[in-house]
Design goal:
- By secondary structure, this protein is of the alpha+beta class.
- It has a domain of 154 residues: Pnp Oxidase, Chain A (Roll), CATH 2.30.110.10.
- The protein is built from five helices and eight strands, in the order αβββαββαααβββ.
- It has a six-stranded antiparallel barrel.
- The longest helix is centred in the N-terminal third of the chain and has 14 residues.
- The two termini are 22 Å apart.
- Its EC number is 1.4.3.5.
- Its cofactor is FMN.
- InterPro entries: Pyridox_Oxase, Pyridox_Oxase_CS, Pyridox_Oxase_N, Pyridoxamine_oxidase_dimer_C, Split_barrel_FMN-bd.
Length: 237
């Protein structure tokens, strides 16, 4: 249940931001989305195939880092959510893969208690959004090593050196950790993936494709996993 302030006891708020127009050329009115439309017959029966199509179109339209995605998780039993921007690094017919620290980070603790996650992609240049919800599974070290080997050396060292999300007394403390790991792997090109670091796959159960339209009357289609495959429904904007 949402809780609202009691007008009899709460002082009026001072609005620091009110009704921003998002760069609209029409003062006082928000930007209108006019670049496209979406119909059910345009959609692939598979949401991962449809995502791949849209991702290719976003890349062709020079969307800045289209792999950028908000990853949202929530801990149990308190149910408190948390979200952060990450990169999707792989897509296959099973789902969407994210790499990170899975021992000390906030998201690792959320996933340990509640193996569910949500993803949101926003591609401004094509006025499109994709939302994904589903179960989370951890990749094997062998699977994670394949991607880990593609990272620059500094990023591989950094994965070992940083106890992600833990308190640091200073930047120098982090630099010292990096130097220690550098010494550990000095002269070695092959660095093993840390046991606490790797990939998770978000296995989609619900996927929504959103195409911006004028007057906020957007086109929205939701894929829902069912026994025989996927059910596709148009949603009210």
């Amino acid at each position: 249940m949402l809780h609202s302030a009691n007008p009899s006891t709460s002082a009026p708020s001072t609005k620091l931001i009110f009704a921003p127009t998002g760069g609209s050329n029409d003062p006082g009115h928000a930007t209108q989305y006019k670049l496209g439309a979406l119909e059910k017959e345009h959609l692939d029966p598979s949401p991962t195939a449809q995502f791949h199509k849209w991702f290719q179109e976003a890349t062709a339209a020079q969307v800045y880092q289209p792999e950028t995605v908000t990853l949202a998780t929530a801990s149990l039993p308190d149910g408190k959510p948390s979200a952060r921007m990450v990169f999707m690094k792989e897509l296959d017919d099973r789902g969407f893969v994210i790499y990170s620290n899975w021992e000390t980070s906030r998201k690792s603790k959320d996933v340990a208690s509640n193996p569910q996650a949500a993803l949101t992609f926003w591609w401004r240049e094509v006025e499109r959004q994709v939302r994904v919800e589903g179960q989370v599974e951890r990749l094997t070290d062998e699977e994670s090593q394949v991607y880990y080997d593609t990272r620059i050396r500094g990023s591989r060292i950094g994965a070992w050196a940083s106890p992600q999300s833990q308190v640091l007394e200073s930047r120098e403390e982090l630099v010292t950790r990096v130097e220690e790991v550098e010494k550990r792997f000095e002269g070695k090109d092959k660095i093993p993936v840390p046991p606490f670091w790797g990939g998770i796959r978000v296995i989609p159960e619900v996927v929504e494709f959103w195409q911006g339209r004028e007057s906020r009357l957007h086109d929205r289609f939701r894929y829902t996993k069912v026994t025989e495959g996927w059910k596709v429904e148009r949603l009210s904007p």
